[in-house]
Each structure stands twice: as structure tokens, then as C-alpha cells.
């Protein structure tokens, strides 16, 4: 945290996008690059994060700003295909594909809650996914991975940074795509990603305040990542997905 050093936040259109101004100073990334985003709505959302800070700037609450910094600085120096491959690799360890056999109540809960999402994804993308109780996980067909590679290629690099961020929060490509495709809500996606933990809490109880804090934080990060994807998607992509819906 640091003390708030500005009074007013505004946006302005620059060469190649929209800039954020803190009083009369242009916002910069951690690597010193000009903070410039591709869409006005994203700029407004980022400006709102800065404007909502009180006496001190709590950077850990500014998820959209962080995602923009990552997209601009690209600290891992990955190109578009590397981002796509990293996202698809999560299929091999996808949360909703790993099932338990015992206790029976949890196994039943996983079937009831996760099977419909897997079935939706298989129909939506015309792929085979399945699930497994083996520690090795399910055997995902190569054709399924390539279908997801092709689908993710329809997003731009900025949106892909957001998709990977959401996948990292949920530990699931399937839940992330269900969320980004507007099939499930943020609350539902987070709940499904924490199914076993929620089961244990129902059985044994939770640590006072800690569970609620973790849940709110995860929802906030997941919601921010999803919003980032939608705000960064090319208008044609957004229109195409809306028409599909």
C-alpha cells in the first residue's frame, strides 16, 4: 500500500488506445511503459479502480489494473500461441475431471454438480472430455485439445491473458469457458471450483471469517478476470458470441 498521491482520475484517447491520467500525470506500468488500453470501456473500468481508492492505494484490490499491466509488460514474454497452449494444458488437470470414489456423498455431489457442466462443454464445443477417479486423471483426446486451441485463437492476446487468469483462479478450463461463454455465473463457477472444500465445510465447519474472506477474494478475482476478457474481446468476437447466445 502507498498513500494516495492524486486527486482526480480521468481518461484520454491517445495514439493506439486510451490512457489513464492521475491529475496531470499519465499512468505507467511497473516496467515504465505508458499505460494504454485498447478500449474506452476498459479504460473507464480501470479509472474507476483508481478513483475508488481512499487514503491509501491498495494495489491488491485493483485486479483490472494488474491484468492490464500484465498484458502491457508481458513479464513472461509469451506469444499468443504460448498463451493458448498454457490454457489448454489445464485440461489435463481440470478440477471437474478429477473425481473421488469415497466418500460416497462427495462422489454423488461431484456427479450431480460437475457432470452437467462437462456435458455442456462437450456439446458446446463438440468434443469428448469425460472424467476419471484415477490419480492420473482422464485421458483427454488430442482432437479435444486442438478444438480448444482453435476456439481460443479467436480471442486477442489481451483477452487470452484474462482467460488464463480466470483458469488459474478456478483451476479449470471447463468452468472458465462456461463462465466466459455466459453459461454459468461467477458465483456458480467459484462454488463448483471449491466443491470438495465446501463439502468439507458443511461437514466439519469453517474457520471463522477466513472462509468468507477467501470466498469473496476468489469471487472478486474471477469476476474481474471475466470482465477483463469481455472488455478486451474484439467487437466482432463479442457480437458473434452474443448472437450464439
TrEMBL record:
SUPFAM superfamilies listed in its UniProt record: ATP12-like
Membrane topology annotation: Peripheral membrane protein
GO CC terms of this entry: mitochondrial inner membrane
Pfam families per record: ATP12
Gene3D superfamilies: ATP12 ATPase, ATP12-like
Complex formation: Interacts with ATP5F1B; involved in the assembly of the F1 component of the mitochondrial ATP synthase (ATPase). Interacts with FMC1.
Similarity comment: Belongs to the ATP12 family.
Protein name: ATP synthase mitochondrial F1 complex assembly factor 2
Organism placement in taxonomy: Eukaryota, Metazoa, Chordata, Craniata, Vertebrata
Gene designation: Atpaf2
Amino acid at each position: 500500500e502507498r498513500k494516495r498521491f492524486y486527486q482526480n482520475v480521468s481518461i484520454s484517447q491517445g495514439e493506439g488506445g486510451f490512457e489513464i491520467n492521475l491529475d496531470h500525470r499519465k499512468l505507467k506500468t511497473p516496467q515504465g511503459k505508458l499505460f494504454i488500453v485498447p478500449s474506452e470501456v476498459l479504460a473507464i473500468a480501470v479509472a474507476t479502480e483508481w478513483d475508488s481508492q481512499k487514503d491509501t492505494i491498495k494495489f491488491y484490490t485493483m485486479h483490472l489494473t494488474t491484468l492490464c499491466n500484465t498484458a502491457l509488460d508481458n513479464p513472461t514474454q509469451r506469444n499468443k500461441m504460448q498463451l493458448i497452449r498454457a490454457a489448454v494444458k489445464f485440461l489435463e488437470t481440470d478440477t471437474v475431471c478429477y473425481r473421488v470414489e469415497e466418500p460416497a456423498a462427495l462422489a454423488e455431489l461431484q456427479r450431480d454438480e460437475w457432470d452437467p457442466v462437462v456435458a455442456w462443454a462437450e456439446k458446446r464445443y463438440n468434443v469428448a472430455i469425460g472424467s476419471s477417479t484415477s490419480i492420473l486423471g482422464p485421458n483427454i483426446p488430442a482432437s479435444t485439445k486442438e478444438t480448444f486451441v482453435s476456439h481460443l485463437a479467436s480471442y486477442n492476446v489481451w483477452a487470452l491473458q484474462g482467460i488464463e487468469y480466470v483458469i488459474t483462479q478456478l483451476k479449470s478450463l471447463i468452468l472458465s469457458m462456461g463462465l466466459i461463454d455466459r453459461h454459468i455465473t461467477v458465483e456458480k463457477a467459484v462454488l463448483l471450483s471449491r466443491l470438495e472444500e465446501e463439502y468439507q465445510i458443511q461437514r466439519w465447519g469453517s474457520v471463522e471469517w477466513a472462509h468468507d474472506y477467501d470466498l469473496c477474494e476468489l469471487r472478486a478475482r474471477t469476476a474481474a478476470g471475466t470482465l477483463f476478457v469481455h472488455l478486451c474481446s474484439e467487437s466482432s468476437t463479442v457480437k458473434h458470441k452474443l448472437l450464439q447466445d
